[in-house]
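Protocol step 6 of 9: fold each sequence in the batch and record its structure tokens directly after the sequence line. For illustration, a two-sequence batch is reproduced in full.

Sequence one:
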Amino acid sequence: MPHHARPHASPFGRPDGPGAHRAAHTTLPPETPVETTTRLRPVRERRTGRAIAVGVCAVLGIGLIGGALAGMWLAAAEPGEPAEPAGYTQAKDLWHNAPVDTLFPRTLTGPGAGPGGAARTWTRIVVAPDAACSPAVLAKGLLATLRPLGCERVLRATYTDATASSVITVGLVFTGADATTQRTLGQGLTTRLGQDVPPALPGPGTVAARFGAQQRAGWWLNAPTDLPVVVTAVSGFADGRAVDAPQPADRAMTAGRTDATAQSGLGHEAKNITLRFEQLLRTAVAPPAKDEDKDAR
């Protein structure tokens, strides 16, 4: 498939459907007062015996109430089955239901994505066909981690920045994990995988023509807790220069570093573009409410 054409079959998905259903506006009933007022009764003279009895009852009552509250607190503290995040099931099918331009926009903005909060704009230059999970498209450690959970499909695209001096491959790895497992998956995933750098996706005839294994400079990956997906990114220089040791984004972003990867902001780009794609996926399964309001008008 030509790298600029849509992938085969799906191509990742189908066009967007009709607008969302418009909810009807309802009027809430008037609020019911919590308290009511009654006529006060005269206060009778207190007797010692009665006061003692009342005190004993009060102590017993407080004990019972305290026990009940403690039971409620303990019950609330017990781990229960967490609710599935909204859109979690729908997200599992995005890889073949959503259009290519939804999952991989032709142009992507990244406010504050560069060093010092500088803005970034990325342009898509190549899209790969959706692929089965294999060492050709996934780092070996990530593949070994996801296989027991169900690794469904991998989508990849490569972008370049506005100056065409850097390139970055983004991967969307759809999993079969349930919501509970997905929450656990993301905890320290980058640390566990060590130097398991995602593969680069070159683009013949583009500025990413020489983007291969030796050109990978900064990388990052994340498994959001509310989506059945792992987002990966690996960045490099568009001029094809080799890099001795690719760095995780958090290391490349450390203040005071003077190496080329850190100075060029390739760590910032790798990390921030993964965050941007997580937002895109959430929007794909749950469009912003303001868009629905606009349709309603």
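Sequence two, same batch, same settings:
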Amino acid sequence: MGDTAARPLRADAERSVRAVLEAAERVLAEDPGASMEQIAAAAGVARTTIHRRFASRQALMEALATSAARQLAQAVDDGRPDTAPPLVAMHRITANVLQVKGAWAFALGLPSDPGSEAAILQRDINDRCVAVLERAKAAHLIADTADLDWVRRVYYALISESLRSEPDTDPDTLAARIIDTLLYGAGPRP
């Protein structure tokens, strides 16, 4: 993230970085080829501000991906994956993740270098997801024979499809539908 990762920022500098990242998400989602100047204008900051904070367009993209991944990791943490009952954790995490993914879809879709902070956070999120699914399996919410990596990938696909087809639906409503579909499928209930 350029020089912003090396030392803490003043509150006003932090606000301008946040404004730039939020503007970059909006502008680049509409036009992935948008210029740094267009992003600066959308953020309400001077062109020099964006260039001072981000040495290059690539540095901005890396900061954007890292910021979004941090928010996604926080969304998982806020769902209390290690302490809430598994079904409650799954619902909370899903609702939280839907909100973050809905707001940061462009940034979360950016490719990351394998050693980057964003990629490391994504791998940690995947591991934490499987850990919650292991807790759900232990609570007999998921079959003992289930391949949890496959279940994780299906869960991610359900989240993606929900965001694509119903972006304006309440996250709690979508989370309930996703978890219900993940755990019970479309078959009749016993």
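Proceed to step 7 once all outputs are recorded. Observation for sequence two: Confidence is low (pLDDT under 50) at residues 1-5.
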